[in-house]
Amino acid sequence: MSRIPGYLTRKATVRSGSLLIVGLIAGLSARSLPAQTALGTPFIGANNLSYHLAELTRSGGAEITRVHGISYGHRFGAADRATHTTMVFRGSARPFDDVNAGVLDVAGAVGLSHASRAVTGLSVAASAGVGVMAWGDDIAKTGRMQITIPVTAGAGYDLRFRGVTLSPFAKATIARYDLRTYLDDERQSLDSGWDASYTSGVSVRLKEVVFTSTRIVGEHGMPERSRWAFSAGISY
């Protein structure tokens, strides 16, 4: 595979993200498995491993591309606790097109979730992390990178139908971003500021298998201020 140039630094956000990041943590209700979804990452066991797909801008503009990657999450503490600490890491990329341009998206976050004992199935969560999205063009020798530090709070609710659990969730994020552009590895501009975004989605859980679909709205620098993300994985 071709080298990734230093100026493969084109815009970034965390969410995860995901920012990444696109979604983080789970909790526990008083009479349910420890898989309550707060921010889109249900934990049945202590670990969660997923395939991740997300829309991003191709080069910081309106054109959309998709990145593919893997996310891993870990829940600390006993499964029957009402409050958990979790961490989630995600890495995604789009291979160079004809060895000319590439996209990279990495993020990590640590969060705290709590299950409501008054309302069975409801949990709330908060998290903080850091993420980087980067674009680079090997021919134009241009790059763009954005580093983001987000703080997120949200809630989720479990709806159980026999062996399937449907978990809608929503979260709000405030992030500090640092956007840089490059030409021939020389920085051309720097733009820093604050950003607010909103994420909603739903996860479908069948035993240890989990699917999550997410829509992120209002994120800085994203196409049409909205993008979609999807994950499929197992919790063990």
Note down, in words, how this protein is organized.
The chain has strands at residues 15-18, 20-21, 26-27, 36-37, 47-57, 64-76, 83-94, 101-115, 122-137, 142-157, 159-161, 164-183, 186-206, 209-217, 226-235. The chain starts with 14 loop residues before the first strand and ends with a strand. It has a 10-stranded antiparallel beta barrel with strand order 5-6-7-8-9-10-12-13-14-15. It has a single domain (15-235), classed as Calycin beta-barrel core domain (Lipocalin), CATH 2.40.128. The protein is mainly beta and 236 residues long.
Q: Categorize the overall geometry.
A: elongated
Q: What gap, in angstroms, lies between the N and C termini?
A: 33 Å
Helix-strand pattern, N to C?
A: EEEEEEEEEEEEEEE
Strand order of the largest sheet: 5-6-7-8-9-10-12-13-14-15
Number of separate strands: 15
- Count of alpha/pi helices: 0
Can you identify the CATH superfamily?
A: Calycin beta-barrel core domain
The tally of domains stands at 1
CATH topology: Lipocalin
Q: How much helical structure, as a percent, in the residues?
A: under 10%
Portion in beta strands: over 45%
